[in-house]
Specification:
Elements lengths: L12 H6 E8 L5 E5 L3 E8 L13 E7 L2 E7 H4 L11 E9 L2 E7 L1 E9 L3 E2 L13 E7 L2 E6 L1 H5 L8
Parallel strand pairs: 2-11, 5-7
Antiparallel strand pairs: 1-2, 1-8, 3-6, 4-5, 6-7, 9-10, 10-11
Length: 166
């Protein structure tokens, strides 16, 4: 499954505010997350042999990977968020390649669940719905079609002190 987005194909801001596309991922048995598709560059599956382990990094940083002749960091998202380990050590990883102001990086997620549109009338504040340690990384909460989504703030994730400790 590969998802490519382009700024040329994005909806106008007025329409995008009404119904925005999101990539759904399952992070743990309790948590489903959603990334705005305009920040998703590609979704790929990579083997363990594609990673270059870097010593003395936070435990959630898996290492570096070559992506289209660029070197990007791979971050184990559930581990970074302190969620119950759902995927453990594997030989293959689901990687969501994200592009934001901080750069391009890969987020390893246990399970990809496709795409969806989340409508503004279903969006709610995440306060009181998630643990306080998750709150800085969440833009909102959505309940739709019997599914509950945490909508990620990717920029906040990449500025996390967890990723910048040695």
């Amino acid at each position: 499954m590969i998802i490519h987005t382009s700024k040329d194909t994005l909806l106008t801001s007025e329409i995008r505010d009404l119904n925005t596309g999101y990539l759904k991922v399952k992070l743990s048995p309790q948590f489903m997350g959603a990334f705005p598709v305009e920040q998703v560059q590609e979704v790929i599956v990579v083997g363990l042999e594609s990673l270059t382990i870097i010593p003395n990094m936070p435990s959630c940083v898996l290492g570096l990977m070559n992506w289209h002749s660029r070197i990007i960091w791979l971050v184990d998202l559930p581990k970074m968020l302190g969620l119950e380990l759902y995927h453990g050590k594997q030989k293959m990883y689901n990687v969501v390649v994200i592009n934001c102001e901080q750069g391009v990086f890969g987020l390893v997620v246990p399970e990809l669940k496709g795409t969806t549109r989340l409508f503004t009338e279903n969006l709610d504040s995440h306060h009181g719905k998630v643990d306080s340690h998750l709150s800085p990384y969440i833009r909102g909460y959505c309940q739709q079609a019997e599914e509950n989504f945490l909508i990620f703030d990717v920029a906040a994730m990449m500025q996390s002190p967890i990723l910048h400790q040695r």
